[in-house]
Amino acid sequence: MSGLVDLLEKVRETVYRGPIKRAVVAMGLEPRLKTAYSALLSTASNDETVTHDVAGVEATFRVSTGMEVQRFRGLMNEQGVVKSILSDITEEDVFYDVGANVGLYTCFVSQVSESTVAFEPHPENVDRLRENLVLNDIGNIEVREEALSHTNGDAELAVTGADVAGEGTHALATGSEEKTVGIRTIRADSLSPEVPNPDVVKIDVEGAEISVLRGMGDLLDSCRLVYCETHPERLEERGESHDEVVKLLTGSGFSVEEIESRGEETFLRAVK
User: Fold this and answer.
1) What is the per-residue burial (b if ≥16 Cβ within 10 Å, else e) of 159-172?
2) 156: helix, strand or coil
3) Which pTM was predicted?
4) Does the keyword Coiled coil apply (predicted)?
5) Domain interval for residue 242
């Protein structure tokens, strides 16, 4: 990446923390600041590719937007989660990447699992996801341009932050959002026999975690491992909570542990 991009990221990591970050969040300015910073990075960055090695698995990604710079410069601080999934997954496992975005998890895990299904409803992200699959010469993928949920039908995806490839804060709309995109939702348990049942699932859906899990129905009985990032503020907007996610998983027979935290967001590893 360019020297200017490296400098901008270093300044952000050094300055935007502690009291300054808390003040920005308290004033409700963080979404606008993130959008402006993403636009600045997009201007400063070149259209290029970056390659990362996690646990001996290499994956290459196209980078041309500010959000992609942030996503792939440090793997969104999720390298530990990627490594954990890679250590858990087997060649025979069917992997569901729910909220695949532009393919960070898909491009790594599909090189171990022989069957991966990626769910991503946002058009810009889907296009870049497909590009990244080509870059990595990955063919054992089914890309579903849908959002897994507890219902089959039409819905609105709230477009937040920058509306560019790599943006990971889009979420199912709750009714108060200014900008939305029409999408399709589908229950995971309605996909069979068209799509194989999952053994391992990764969920990152910006507050719709419970909807995804409820839509899995009996599939949770046969699924052996779920990685789920919870978003407490987004869950609260839907009248739900982190604790309800944990309760739903434990009620389905999983042992749940917290393996990674990023602000209020927490990655859970649920295993049978």
Assistant:
1) bbbbebbbbbbbbb
2) strand
3) 0.83
4) no
5) 47-271
